[in-house]
Amino acid sequence: MGYTVGIDIGGTKVLGGVVDETGALIKRARRDTPAEGGVALTQAIADVALELMKDSEIESVGVSVAAFISADRKTILATPNIKDWNGVNLDYELTSRIGLPVVIENDANSAAWGEFKFGAGRGKENILMLTVGTGIGGGIVVNSNLLRGSFGIAAEIGHLRIVPNGLLCGCGAYGCFEQYGSGTALLRHAREAIQAHPDRASNILNRGDGSIEGVKGSAITAAAGDGDELALSIFEITGDYIGAGIASLAVILDPEAVVIGGGVIDAGDILLNPIRTGMEKYMPFAGKHPHPQIIGAQLGNEAGLVGVADLARI
Amino acid sequence: MGYTVGIDIGGTKVLGGVVDETGALIKRARRDTPAEGGVALTQAIADVALELMKDSEIESVGVSVAAFISADRKTILATPNIKDWNGVNLDYELTSRIGLPVVIENDANSAAWGEFKFGAGRGKENILMLTVGTGIGGGIVVNSNLLRGSFGIAAEIGHLRIVPNGLLCGCGAYGCFEQYGSGTALLRHAREAIQAHPDRASNILNRGDGSIEGVKGSAITAAAGDGDELALSIFEITGDYIGAGIASLAVILDPEAVVIGGGVIDAGDILLNPIRTGMEKYMPFAGKHPHPQIIGAQLGNEAGLVGVADLARI
Amino acid sequence: MGYTVGIDIGGTKVLGGVVDETGALIKRARRDTPAEGGVALTQAIADVALELMKDSEIESVGVSVAAFISADRKTILATPNIKDWNGVNLDYELTSRIGLPVVIENDANSAAWGEFKFGAGRGKENILMLTVGTGIGGGIVVNSNLLRGSFGIAAEIGHLRIVPNGLLCGCGAYGCFEQYGSGTALLRHAREAIQAHPDRASNILNRGDGSIEGVKGSAITAAAGDGDELALSIFEITGDYIGAGIASLAVILDPEAVVIGGGVIDAGDILLNPIRTGMEKYMPFAGKHPHPQIIGAQLGNEAGLVGVADLARI
Amino acid sequence: MGYTVGIDIGGTKVLGGVVDETGALIKRARRDTPAEGGVALTQAIADVALELMKDSEIESVGVSVAAFISADRKTILATPNIKDWNGVNLDYELTSRIGLPVVIENDANSAAWGEFKFGAGRGKENILMLTVGTGIGGGIVVNSNLLRGSFGIAAEIGHLRIVPNGLLCGCGAYGCFEQYGSGTALLRHAREAIQAHPDRASNILNRGDGSIEGVKGSAITAAAGDGDELALSIFEITGDYIGAGIASLAVILDPEAVVIGGGVIDAGDILLNPIRTGMEKYMPFAGKHPHPQIIGAQLGNEAGLVGVADLARI
C-alpha cells in the first residue's frame, strides 16, 4: 500500500530510494561506500535508510548486495568484494538500528525482480534475467516467484560450465559462462580481434587513447553503431557464447522471456541480435517448440534498488 | 481423500494403478501398447482406466507419457516414439471416454513428483531428479511445485550442452548431456574400454555372449560389484560426466537433493560415488556453500505412475 | 630422364598417365573401377599401365590410392572403400603383371608431392598439404622429402583431435579435424545455417532443387561468390576450424607454406581468407615468428597422378 | 673422430662438457648464469668453452638454449627468460671469442637428439621426444634428421591446441597442450585433487610442509610409489592429457617411439602407464596399425648437453 525503501550497495556508492507500489522512485539518498566494509558499511546503510525514513512513512527496507545470502535471507554467507562482512546477520544489525523489517537479497536477483515487476518482464510469469557486466549475474522468476534455492546459490548462472577444461574462473572452477559471455569477456575478445587485425582496428582505437589496453566497451559499442566490421564481429563472438548459454538455460527453465541487463545492454540490438542468432543455433529440438524472447532490460542501474524495495513489501 | 488412477505409457505396456493419498498402489491393470499409436493407444488408456474404475471410487486420472505436453497440460505437442499422437488433445479424448477429470504430464516430471512426494525426496522442498536410461530425463521441484515452464520444455536437462561441438544428439543439437551421461553413453564407454583393454575385459564379456556388441548394462554392474577394475572405470567415466552436469544444474537450481533414477540406479553407490566425486570436482565456489545430496531413487519403475496419480489429485 | 606412369585409383575411374620429368602429362588412359575390388582392380591397374607402355618407353609405375600403405611401400595395409584388397602385396602383383618397378603411395601424399614438385609448393622445402574433400587428407614434405613415418600413418592430419569428446569419426575416435573442416563438414554447416535462417537462404536454395538436403557445395560457392551473406558465413565457420587445425600443425611442422587442395578449393579466396584469419587467430606466439603462407593448390585432380609418377622415378 | 663441446644454458648454471663420438661425457665445466643476460651470458658461455678447450682438442661447440633459433641456426630470435639476448647473432659472438665453429640449437631439440643418438631412441629413425617440465618441450627426429622447420618453430608441441577456448597459455593462445600435460599442470591437478578430497590427502601432504601450496612433485611421486590412491589418480589425469596429445601427434608424425623426459620422468611407469592408456584410448584407427612405444628418457639432465655436442660434430 505504502512506501518501502530499496538500498543498493555498489562498489563506490550506497544508493537508497523510496519506492511506491508501482515501482516509482519517489526520493533518493546516498552515501559513499566505506572502503573498510564491516560495521562502517552497515552504518552507512542504516544512515541512508534513516534519512529516507525522515519524511515518508516507510513499511520496510530491502537491501541488494553482491553476495551469497542465507536461505532465510538474514545473513551474508560470503561476499567477494566487501571486507569483514562474511557471516554478518545483516537483518539483525539493520533492524536494531532502524526499527523496521529488513529483507536482504542478492543484487542480480533484485534486478531480475525489478524487471519482472516493473520493467521488461512485466506481465510474464517465468523469466530469466542476465546481468552482463564484470561477470554474469542471474535471476530467475518461476511462476511469479523468485527462485532462491536451498542454500542461497540458485541462479548463479554465470558459473554454468560452458567449456570443459576452459578458462579458470574466480570461483575456482574452469570454463564458466561468465569467462566467455561477460562484459569482461567482450573486452578480451576485442583485444584479441584488434591484435589479429590491427589494420582494421582504427575505428575502435581512435575512440580511446590509441592503445589496445585502453580500449573501452563504449568505444566498441560506438564503432559497432557506425557499422564498423571489426566491432560488430566482437559482439558476434560474445553474443554467440551468450546465446549458447541461454539455449542450455532455456531447456532447464523454459522461460517466456530472457531479459539482458547490465552495462553492455547500451549496445541494444548490436548485442541482442547475435544473442538471438546464437540461441537459435544451439537450441535443442529447434523448431519443435517456441523459444523465449530475448529482450533488453528497461530499468537500467536502478533495477536492483526498485526490485529489492518491492521484495521488502509485505 | 480418496483414490486416483495413474497410468504410465511405456514402449510395450500401458500400466495403470489405483493410488491412495499416501502413494500406496492398491490395484493394477495393464494393456499392451498398440504399435499403431493414435486412437488405438488412446482407447487402451481409457480401457485401463475404466477397468480400474469398476471396483473403486476414483476422483481423477493422471497419465504419464514421454512427450512434450502443452503448458495447459491438455495436448501432446510432440512425442518421439508414438505414432499419430502429435497434436492430440488427450485431455478431451480421455475425459469424453471415461467421464473423469484427466491430468497429463511428462514421464520424467511424473517420476520426479513421485519421488518428491513418496520416495527419496520426501520431506524436501527443492529437488532435481535425473532419470538415467536411454537418455536423461529430468524433473525439477521448486518450493514444492513442479517446474513446468512456459512452453512445456522445462527440465529437459538431458539437453544441457556439456561439450561444445560434441556428439550429435537426437534433438538436433551437439554435445548434449545425455550423449555423455545416459545409460546409452555408459554402454558406449564400456565398448570403448573393452576395445582399448581386451585383456582386462573377460570379467565383463563372460557375463554375456562374449561379444563387445552383446555387452549389457547388467553385466557391467555385476562385474563392478565384484570389484572388477575395468567395470569400475566405466562407471567412473560416466559418473564424472553426470557429476559435471549436476554441478552446472546445481548453480542454477540449488536443490537440496539430486535424486538419480532410471535403470542404471541398480548399480547403487557404484554409480552414485563417481557422480558425487564428479560433482564436487566441478562445483563452482567449492567449499563456500553446502552441496546437494546425491541419492538413489526409491520407487523404481512405478515412480511415474504413482507420481502422476498424485498430480491428478485435486 | 625418361617417362614414368602415374595411376590414380578413384571411386569410379582408374586414371593413368605418362608423365615426363617436368611433370607434364603426355598421354592418358582409363578404366572403370571394378566394384568388386580385389584381383579385378589389380588387373584394371595393370591394363592401364600396359596400355600406356605400348607407345612410350616407361621407367617405372607409381600408383596412388586412398589406403594405409606399409612402410616399405609394397602392401595395402588397410583401405576403407575397396573390397578384398587389405593385405595385398600390390608391388608384387603389379610387377609380375607388367614387368616394371612399381611404387605405391597414399593418395594425399601423392597429391602433396605433386604440388611440391610441380604446383603450388614448387621451390619450397617444407610444405604441408591439406586435401579437403569428403574428409581431410594430408601430405607433409620435410626437407624436400615426403614424411612417411614408421608405420604408414604419418600425415593423417584429418584425425588430429581438435574437439575433445566431439563428433564421432569414421576412424573410431572423437572430435577429429575432418569432422569440422572437411567438405562434408562445410555441407553440414550449410544445412545448419539454412535451418537457423531460412529467410536468408533463398540465394543458396534457388541454385539447387530448393530443399536443404539437396544443397551442394557448388551452390554455396556460387552464392558466396555473389556476396551472399549466409553463404559467406558458412565458409567462415568451416575456415575457422581449418585455420585452427593449421595453427596446431604449424607449431609442430613449421612449414613454409600450407597448400589447400581438394574440391572445396574451387572457392578460392572465399575459403582461403577465413582459413588465414583463423590460423592467425589461433597461432601460438603470434607476432613472434613468420606464419606459413596459405595457398591454393594448382594441379587440381591430377596432382596425385602426377605426384606418384614422380615418386616412381628412380 | 675427436671431441666436441656441448653447453647447456639453464636458469641458474651454464653447464659445459667435452663429449666424444660415443656420447660419453669426458669432462665438465660450469659457470653461474649471469642474471643480467646479454653480453655477460655470452661471455660466460665463452669462458666455459675456453676452459674445456685448454686440455683437449675440440672440433666445435654446440650450445643448447630455451629459445627460438633462426633457421640458419645463428641468431636468437626470441627467448622468454633471458634478458637482452633477442636478436643476438650468437654464432658470430661466440666464434669470434673462441675461434671454433659453433652450432646453436633449441634445448628440447638438443635433448631429443641426445636421446636419439645415445639414449632411449638409439637405433630408431623416427622418434618424438617430450620434455615434460614447467612446460612441454618437443623434439622430432624424422629419417634420422632433426625436424627444424622453416622459421625455427617446429616441434613446439607444447602449443598444440588440445582444448578449444581452454586455459590461457603464456604464448598468448588458449588450450595449449602444456597447460594440461606439463609438470606445472600435474601440480595443479594435485592441488585440485587435494582440495576436493582433503580427507584422502594426508599421504601427500605429510611429505611436505602440510600445506596445499607447498606440495611438490616429488611428494606426489613418492606417495604414488607407495600405492596412494589420490596420488595415482593425479598421474592418471595428467597422463590422460599427455596420451591424448601423443595420439594426435602420432597421426601426424607416426614415430616408432615417443620418449618422455623432463623432471616428471622420475615417476617412471607411474606416469608412463597412464600415458600409454590415454594414447590407446584416443588413437584414431585403433587396432588397424601399430602404435609407437612410450618409453622413458635415459640421459636425464645431460641429454641436451650431449645432444648439442653431437649436433656440433661436423
UniProtKB/TrEMBL annotation, chains A, B, C, D:
<dbReference type="Pfam" id="PF00480">
    <property type="entry name" value="ROK"/>
</dbReference>
<keyword id="KW-0547">Nucleotide-binding</keyword>
<keyword id="KW-0418">Kinase</keyword>
<dbReference type="InterPro" id="IPR004654">
    <property type="entry name" value="ROK_glcA"/>
</dbReference>
<dbReference type="InterPro" id="IPR043129">
    <property type="entry name" value="ATPase_NBD"/>
</dbReference>
<dbReference type="InterPro" id="IPR000600">
    <property type="entry name" value="ROK"/>
</dbReference>
<keyword id="KW-0808">Transferase</keyword>
<comment type="similarity">
    <text>Belongs to the ROK (NagC/XylR) family.</text>
</comment>
<protein>
    <recommendedName>
        <fullName>Glucokinase</fullName>
        <ecNumber>2.7.1.2</ecNumber>
    </recommendedName>
</protein>
<keyword id="KW-0067">ATP-binding</keyword>
<dbReference type="InterPro" id="IPR049874">
    <property type="entry name" value="ROK_cs"/>
</dbReference>
